[in-house]
Amino acid sequence: MSIDPKRSRAVFQKLERDLIKLSSKPQAESVHRFRTGTRRLQILLGELSPKLDRNEKKLLKLLGRIRKRAGKVRDLDVQSAALRSLKVPREPRRKTQLVNHLIELRGQQENKLRKAVDGTTVREIRKRLKRATKRFNPEASRDPLAVARAMLERLNRAAEPLTEALLHQYRILSKRARYAAEFASPSPKTEQFIAELKRIQDASGDWHDWLTLTQTANQHLGDVRESPLVAELHNVTGAKFRHAVAVLSQMRGQRETESHHAARPSVPAPMDAGRKTASAA
């Protein structure tokens, strides 16, 4: 299955627009869109294209540096949103203290991000994006669905218990696999596969967001013995982990069943009595 030309062109166009928005004002939405856009381009050029040229290597390197900076801002935006959604009757001052701490950290990281997207860097990236757009050939690329499935095969070890480390790997690979699959031409099979990946990504990503917030709270407020707020965050994170494990276990079970049925040899249907009688005659 080849890459959908419209989807591949859209990645270059959207990323350029998101880069300009990010350089003008790194709001939460523009930071998020830029990060997902750079990851999609990384999959398109680094995983689906036959070979990177010098321009593309330099382009991905420049984008990677900014994405790391944007990632620190994005993490703090997500932590702030999660914390504000938490209803904790006890320790309202501690919650306010932690919210202010996250706002302060966000300001520091935003300043570093602004420096990373200076005018010179933005102009160079836009120039290299235009070159990469002209060079990219969808017909010469690898099958997006095959690449996406191969990514997940690295972790399809049904007997291995789902630890936090393994769930973290699934979180990253399901995201990369989804971005690869989204370049395939639309079909019911493709949409079902993407929906499964999104379920894994959403559940594991939600767990990871709360885990990061809990770690930040631990550092700033102390451990569970010192703060009921931190204790509550640990409880929420544990529940998110169990939900993510349940979602992933269900998906793994479905894949195992599908593989078992696919591997089962087909048995020829028995001839009916009428055909046997006719043959005998």
Précis, in short:
The chain is an all-alpha fold and 281 residues long.
Structure characteristics:
281 residues, mainly alpha, flat, disordered C terminus
Beta-strand residue fraction: under 5%
How would you sum up the global shape? flat
Query: Which stretches are poorly predicted, pLDDT < 50 over at least 5 residues?
Result: 269-281
Q: How are helices and strands ordered from N to C?
A: HHHHHHHHHH
| Fraction of residues in H or I helices | over 70%
Please state the structural category.
mainly alpha
Mean model confidence by pLDDT: 87
Span of the ends, CA to CA: 50 Å
For the largest beta-sheet, the strand count, sense and barrel status come to: none
Q: Give me the count of strands.
A: 0
Overview of the structural elements:
With 281 residues, the chain is an all-alpha fold. The protein contains 10 helices and no strands. The chain has helices at residues 5-24, 28-48, 54-85, 92-116, 119-135, 144-153, 164-181, 188-221, 228-263, 273-280. α2 (28-48) crosses α3.
Q: Secondary structure elements and their pairing?
A:
Blueprint: H1 5-24, H2 28-48, H3 54-85, H4 92-116, H5 119-135, H6 144-153, H7 164-181, H8 188-221, H9 228-263, H10 273-280
